[in-house]
Specification:
The chain has about 350 residues and is of the alpha/beta class. About 25% of the residues lie in helices and about 30% in strands.
């Protein structure tokens, strides 16, 4: 019996080719675009290669028509507001630096879309992410890095559950971006050379502080820059303007380069230090999601850990220090460990698991 798959189509080249690859593999394919944010101006969407505005819908609908597959637009604005936008604002207000794409993947692009797709009789959902899903010898599902390191997206997908992975297909993960664009060109898809979408689709101008200010009931106060000893160095514009390791935009005349080393929401202070103060050899994370293994069971494990999306990874030892707490000790110090960001553990090409940096 022909298996049914719902492909999340963003209007970009990757998800478009994903739909075609699955069609070629014999699946009964349905395309879906998720409406997750308000309808941005067309010009902004085109300029930013956005994944959730009007142009995305039109591009995806055109591709679906070319492929001859059913196509629908589904409204997930409520889920996106609750799980992504509100979370994003709350994390910044509490002095942390969130990763909204990870939250969107886990709770909207997978949880909400999968639930609705299964209710419609689908067997799988699929996306155009550069990652591969494999079932390991221990019976667990895990993400494997994509064939192209430059585009690998496993970091942003570490939080998917076993149930979600078991129902997920990622057909572009075994190809390079160049191969995907070439396939799109051979299929004469109009999106073959469309630019990749940029991060944080709901803030196209990248002015996070403005967005938070406009979506928060009370204004966030200015406060003090302080050094590591607590001496006041100047006034900051509000803690939502800063993140760990930041150098630019501090407007402090210190006579040397200085960096944000800590954000203290309880006292509304931003702590400033030198370059070496931004490095550490350990971190603690919570909200753990295990993937290739079902936990550490009192053992330590040697892994490579990535502490941000564009971090190449660093060797470290992980051990469980609480019910939902893991400590990572790095072989060499790493720069700008940032509360609120994800740390993702790898064993070779496979995602072991990950958590949120405390």
């Amino acid at each position: 019996m022909q298996k049914k798959v719902v492909v999340g189509m963003s209007g970009g080249v990757d998800s478009s080719v994903a739909a075609w690859l699955l069609q070629k593999q014999g699946y009964e394919v349905t395309g879906v675009t998720m409406k997750i944010w308000q309808d941005e101006e067309m010009s902004i969407e085109e300029e930013n290669g956005g994944c959730c505005g009007l142009s995305a819908v039109e591009d995806a609908r055109r591709v679906a028509w070319q492929l001859g597959i059913p196509y629908y637009v589904m409204n997930f604005k409520k889920e996106f507001r609750n799980h992504v936008v509100d979370y994003f604002i709350n994390e910044y207000i509490h002095g942390r630096t969130p990763n909204p794409c990870i939250a969107c993947n886990r709770f909207v692009k997978w949880e909400a879309l999968l639930d609705r797709s299964l209710a419609l009789g689908a067997d799988f959902i699929a996306t155009g992410h550069y990652a591969q899903v494999e079932r390991l010898a221990n019976g667990r599902y895990a993400l494997r890095k994509s064939a192209t390191a430059a585009k690998d997206q496993t970091y942003a997908l570490y939080n998917l559950t076993q149930e979600q992975l078991s129902r997920t297909l990622m057909p572009v993960g075994s190809y390079t971006k160049e191969e995907i664009r070439r396939m799109a060109g051979e299929l004469d898809l109009q999106v073959a050379h469309k630019p990749d979408s940029q991060e944080i689709c709901f803030i196209p101008d990248h002015d996070y502080a403005r967005f938070i200010r406009e979506h928060t009931a009370s204004p966030l106060p200015i406060g003090n820059f302080v050094d590591l000893e607590g001496r006041v160095l100047g006034r900051h514009a509000g803690i939502t303007h800063y993140t760990i390791g930041q150098r630019k935009g501090l407007n402090l005349a210190m006579g040397r380069p200085v960096f944000v080393v800590e954000i203290r929401p309880e006292t509304n202070e931003v702590v400033i230090g030198d370059s070496e103060d931004v490095f550490t050899d350990s971190l603690v994370c919570d909200r753990i999601n295990w993937m290739a293994v079902d936990g550490l069971h009192g053992q330590t494990m040697e892994v490579d850990a990535r502490i941000r999306y564009n971090h190449k990874g660093a060797p470290c030892t992980i051990r469980q220090i609480g019910e939902d707490l893991v400590e990572c000790r790095f072989r060499d110090k790493v720069r700008a460990v940032t509360p609120g960001q994800a740390v993702v553990f790898y064993d070779g090409d496979y995602v072991v698991g990950g958590g949120t940096i405390r």
